[in-house]
Write a structure and sequence with these properties.
- By secondary structure, the chain is mainly alpha-helical.
- It has one domain (about 1-135).
- The chain is about 85% helix and about 0% strand.
- It is built from five helices and no strands.
- It has helices at about 1-35, 40-50, 60-90, 95-105, 115-135.
- Helix 2 packs antiparallel against helix 3 (about 60-90).
């Protein structure tokens, strides 16, 4: 009878350890995928997943959580700068467009497609302005 009880206890403990390791692995994979895809909604879900699964933690999860929080701030900054550039292009203001482009460059965001579009729009606005001034003279 005691060996049956010991076997049952071992089975339960092994099952619990396997579930714990599975939760850790699931959280690590979700955080890694979210950081790779740079998707804000997915990152936010991945940040909250360890808490939802009962406070799952590991050194890798701690590292990923720190990176994920920084990534969310970076993504929010990118969205802000991109909207600012788009608004300046819609308004057609050279000064607003220059300041928005300068903010994107200072934030080291040369990969934003809105920045490239803003530069093109700025050069077109400056060209139009020079044509208008040459016609007026």
């Amino acid at each position: 009878m005691t060996s049956r009880a010991a076997t049952l206890i071992q089975k339960m403990v092994r099952g619990h350890l396997t579930m714990s390791k599975g939760r850790v692995y699931m959280c690590e994979q979700m955080l890694e995928r979210a950081l790779t895809l740079r998707d804000e909604a997915l990152i936010n879900r991945a940040i909250h997943l360890p808490k939802l699964l009962g406070g799952v933690t590991s050194p890798l999860i701690k590292l990923y959580l720190g990176n994920a929080k920084r990534m969310v701030l970076e993504l929010l900054g990118e969205v802000y700068v991109a909207k600012e550039i788009e608004e300046a292009m819609q308004i057609g203001s050279v000064d607003l467009l220059r300041s928005a482009i300068l903010k994107a460059e200072q934030a080291h965001m040369p990969y934003l497609k809105e920045l490239q579009q803003g530069r093109r729009a700025l050069s077109q606005l400056l060209m139009l302005r020079s044509v208008v001034t040459s016609i007026e003279e």
